[in-house]
């Protein structure tokens, strides 16, 4: 029953297990040998599943949903490139509105699926959306909270990709622009806050400081359509800006403190 909910608690348990194994080495019995073989299992394991957006949003969503609904202490890390990166750049449900990809040569006509919001509806799943290039402290904090949460956790990480049509050396600046434009809001949903009378949802990014156009026109996945079909690109961009604005309002509403007047 040792408390292993924090790094300090796990370190203390490791020390206790080391002491136990030292004592067992001096005991000549079958029971001692059996206990020695499983002693390391007394240390809490960190279980993580890794996958991309094609898996999490699309072809593997049913399995992901099953894991999140199980209530088990499993952490899921989604590396979201917003496209099927390792199979050639096909559109996924994570592909943003207006982006050009295989099967969306004229720009994706529908908004991106909000995987984080879907996971939040369970109420007992830790959910965070992060971008290392925009806020590394927020990213680390979300990882620590997810690891310490005794239940399912979902971390959705912005992952810049060559399929975006960018200079990969400037990936972090694109991540920051995605957040600054409102395309990628940063948040944490921690069910433990409910017991304290607090709203589990914390919107950690500020309201957009640049228009969506300032972000998308720096990436070829959007710029290609601007050059080939400017009228359609303008129409989709206007729609995408409306989606960003509406989502920002919704997240701000949901993140209001419970005692706010």
Secondary-structure map:
Layout: H1 7-24, H2 30-38, E1 48-52, H3 53-59, H4 61-70, E2 75-80, H5 115-120, E3 126-130, H6 136-148, E4 153-158, H7 171-180, E5 187-189, E6 201-203, H8 212-216, H9 220-228, H10 230-254
Task: Explain what you see.
This protein folds into 2 domains: 1-45; 46-254, Rossmann fold (3-Layer(aba) Sandwich), CATH 3.40.50. α9 (220-228) packs across α10. The protein has helices at residues 7-24, 30-38, 53-59, 61-70, 115-120, 136-148, 171-180, 212-216, 220-228, 230-254, and strands spanning 48-52, 75-80, 126-130, 153-158, 187-189, 201-203. The protein has a 6-stranded mixed β-sheet, with helices on both faces. α6 links the parallel β3 (126-130) and β4. The protein contains 10 helices and 6 strands. By secondary structure, it is an alpha/beta fold. Helix content is 43%, strand content 11%. It is elongated. The two termini are 42 Å apart.
**Neighbour order of strands in the largest sheet:** 1-2-4-3-5-6
CATH class of the largest domain: Alpha Beta
CATH topology of the largest domain: Rossmann fold
Total number of helices? 10
pLDDT averaged residue by residue: 95
- CATH architecture call of the largest domain: 3-Layer(aba) Sandwich
* CATH homologous superfamily label of the largest domain: Thiamin diphosphate (ThDP)-binding fold, Pyr/PP domains
> Which shape, going by the Cα principal axes?
elongated
Q: What level of helicity do the residues show?
A: 40-55%
Reported for the largest beta sheet, the result is: 6 strands, mixed
State which percent range the strand residues make up.
5-15%
Number of strands: 6
Q: What's the order of the H and E elements?
A: HHEHHEHEHEHEEHHH
Which spans have pLDDT < 50 for at least 5 consecutive residues?
Answer: none
Number of domains: 2
Supply Rg.
22 Å
Helical/strand content category = alpha/beta
Report the end-to-end length measured between terminal Cα atoms.
42 Å
